[in-house]
Amino acid sequence: MANFQQQFEAMGYKYDKLTSVGYNNVNGFYFTVCVAPDGKQYTVSVSFALPDANAAGYFNQALGQFLAERKKTIISGVYANNRLDLCYKFKGLAPDVTEGVKEATDACMYFFNQFRAVPACSCCGRPNGTSLYAMEKNISALCSECFVSERSRISTKNRDIDETKENVPLGIVGSVLGALVGAVIWVLMSVLGRIVWAAGLASGVLSFFGYKRFAKKMTRKGLIISLVLGFVILLAGMYCAFAIDVYNAENDYLTEYNTYFSDYLDGPREYISYFDALALVPEYFVYDVGTAIYNNIFGIIGYVVAAVGCIATTMFDKKTKNRIERLM
Ligand SMILES: [Zn+2]
């Protein structure tokens, strides 16, 4: 993991650890740099207003040219609602924001000068005096009016959340429904002879969001319930998929036996039912543990990835809840 904090501080930027955002005030303009959670890209953002539609047209032209010359490093560049977002991709093995941030800042300052841009509120777009605030998960430049309304929106929203009662039974229903989707995908794919780690991932993620949606709230209790249910249901899906394999293997064998050997031995034997196959799973599992584990391990890895993501999301939500902080 690259040390972004060090990189930002070396450029005179400050770094917000909670949101992984670097920020700086360059001649009154607040630049924020957000490193994507997957560590593959980062976005340089700045809010500003242009004097008129003409200037905006010229700016967009200049931006288009700037982007065309940097197709290799910039994934996208969008100027909308008085805010410019330049999305850079990391080059090489050691992710480094320095080069892109410097380039973006220099280019922006050049354009701002040329088109007489002024710092603006990222919410209303007006060139009123702005400050940089951390508002829960977001870091943005806001004018004082927008700051006040955003602050009251957040406190109302959180009061509603706090007053909402967690409906655990319904949450369990949602969790089961979500996890079932993943488990069914697993069974279907396994019938097709495919091992899909994303089915394990889906079990975890959908179980989590199923709980949250139905219980109307996510607490630590809900997190534990949904992750346990998601795992149990995925395992049940894996068991059912295994039984389908057993069912096919046993009956293929019986077909062969009845066709070629039954006449010489003690007569035709009856085919087994799917329920018989379910009972035979443990025996097959023990007989070839290696293959059994190999066939399911990727689904379980997918599930673990989902679980880690859900835990991280819950912790991030908790840490940023009610966060209102003036940064600059
Ligand atoms: Zn505003």
Characterise this structure:
- The protein is of the alpha+beta class.
- It has 2 domains: 4-160, Yope Regulator, Chain: A (2-Layer Sandwich); 168-320, no CATH class.
- Helices cover 59% and strands 17% of the residues.
- It contains 9 helices and 10 strands.
- The protein has helices spanning 4-10, 53-68, 98-115, 144-163, 168-191, 197-215, 220-261, 274-287, 289-320, and strands at 14-16, 21-26, 29-35, 41-49, 74-80, 83-89, 118-119, 130-135, 138-143, 324-326.
- Strands 1, 2, 3, 4, 5, 6 and 7 form a 7-stranded antiparallel beta sheet that branches.
- A hairpin with a 4-residue loop joins strand 1 (14-16) and strand 2.
- The longest helix is centred in the last third of the chain and has 42 residues, at 220-261.
- The radius of gyration is 28 Å and the shape is elongated.
- The two termini are 27 Å apart.
- The relative contact order is 0.11.
- The model has no long low-confidence stretch (mean pLDDT 91).
- It binds zinc ion (ZN).
- The site of zinc ion (ZN) has 8 residues, from strand 9 and helix 4.
**What structural class do you assign from the helix and strand content?**
alpha+beta
Number of domains: 2
Q: What is the CATH C level class of the largest domain, in words?
A: Alpha Beta
How does the major sheet shape up? 7 strands, antiparallel
Say how many strands there are. Answer: 10
Q: Write the H/E string, N to C.
A: HEEEEHEEHEEEHHHHHHE
- Judging from the principal axes of the Cα atoms, what is the shape? elongated
Fraction in helix: 55-70%
Total number of helices: 9
Poorly predicted runs of 5 or more residues: none
Q: How far is the N terminus from the C terminus? A: 27 Å
How much of the residues is beta strand, in percent? 15-25%
Distinct ligand kinds: zinc ion
Mean pLDDT: 91
**CATH fold call of the largest domain:** Yope Regulator, Chain: A
Radius of gyration: 28 Å
Task: Give the CATH architecture of the largest domain.
Answer: 2-Layer Sandwich
